[in-house]
Amino acid sequence: MSSSAVDNREPETDHSAWFAETCTGSHLLNFVGCNSFEGIEGIGVGKCITSGIFTLCGYNWTIGFYPKGKWSLYDLAFDLNLKGDAKGARFMITMTLLCQNGRTPRVCEHPSGAVILGTNGSSCISNFVFEQNHSRWCFIDCINYSTVRCTITKLNPLNKTSCKPHPFAVQPSNLNEQLACLLERGDGTDVSFNVNGVTFDAHKCVLATRSPVFRAQFFGPMKVKMNESIEIKDMKPSVFKSMLHFIYSDSVAELEEAGGNRDASVVLAQHLLVAADWFGLERLKQLCERKMYELIDANNVATTLTLAEQHNCYELKAACMEFNKPPEVFAIVAQTEGFDHMIRSCPAILQELHQFNVS
Q: What are the BTB domain coordinates in residue numbering (predicted)?
């Protein structure tokens, strides 16, 4: 008698993986007095103005700017030129128009796909064309100031690797989500805060783990009593709520979500920066600095500069000083309420600005 057995197990399968590292950098190209291009003799359709050479990702580049369009009037166009040998390198390029009219900024992005540049001398990428509804506003209707941000990402391929599939799948950690749920449910809370009449319950151990100020407050020589409610002064309840959420979840959704209200994001970032500095939340402070840097405009730069000075945000301060350098921009900023507040709060900054602008 013969017998047979059927093996229903999944066949063993090998797989290979290809990994890539990236190097990303951005270059800001400022245009001051852009609507004067209308009157420049000889700057017509197809005429190019070339920037100085700048270095990103280890390569030298220039930007070619066509103020009257490359192929048609007002279809604003840019060329990105690589100076040298790319050796077949792969790049991702994004051109972004950051337009500033003194009141309302407009941002127009134009990303490319993956681009492989040639190896025979200079290479040119010329598919960055902004149509009339964007380019006409930015360079004809705006008040003399626009910026182009060129972001370059170089893809560095690594060697292929082969490995056998692991029989055990491990779920990614969701500890932050679980802690956020713990805060939302209020299970096991042992401390309460009174913020302008609004009560917030929390966990001492979590707060003390994240903040040296809370650690000293709860477990240091001057620790508060177990049944004592802590009053938080000079802070809005909404700001304290966002700070608590960050302490538990390590994120601030209002700052990270795209497409939100710009002005509200700036105000929240400014208030959270103050709170983060006060409670020693360094990562939250850095997130706020980055958001404020991304949203700098003529309306908020004076307030941002004041906060940067008061809370030792040196890189943010340098960015604000650079933003104020063009005389046309500084004239607009000087008319804002934030500028008056800056002079009252940090009068020495005005002298720094004047020295920086003439340097």
A: 189-256
Return the half-sphere exposure (C-beta side, CA atoms, 13 A cut-off) of residue 52: 6
Q: What is the pLDDT of residues 274-331, one digit of tens each?
A: 999 999 999 999 999 999 999 999 999 999 999 999 999 999 999 999 998 888 999 9
Provide the pLDDT confidence category of residue 95 given band limits of 50, 70 and 90. Answer: confident
**Size of the chain in residues:** 359
Say if residue 182 is exposed, middle or buried (CB neighbours under 10 Å; 0-12, 13-18, 19+).
middle
pLDDT of residue 155: 76
Q: Looking at this protein, which amino acid is placed at residue 150?
A: C
CB count, 10 Å around CB of 172? Answer: 5
In Å, how far are 54, 63, 86 from 81, measured between CA atoms?
11, 6, 11
The reply to whether CATH 2.60.210.10 applies to domain 19-157 is yes
The rounded distance, in Å, linking the Cα atoms of 302 and 341 is 8
Q: Break the chain into its structural domains and give their ranges.
A: 19-157, 175-358
Question: How many angstroms separate the CA atoms of 23 and 266, rounded?
Answer: 28
Listed in sequence order, the DSSP H helices in the chain are 132-136, 175-185, 204-210, 212-219, 237-249, 253-256, 262-279, 282-294, 301-310, 314-323, 327-333, 337-345, 347-358
Angle at 170 between CA 168 and CA 175, to 5 degrees: 160
Q: What is the pLDDT of residue 39?
A: 45
**Domain 175-358 falls in which CATH fold?**
Potassium Channel Kv1.1; Chain A (3.30.710)
pTM, to two decimals: 0.56
Higher-confidence residue: 212 or 110? 212
Write out pLDDT tens, residues 324-354.
888 899 999 999 999 999 999 988 888 888 8
pLDDT tens, 175-208?
Answer: 989 999 999 999 999 999 999 999 999 999 999 9
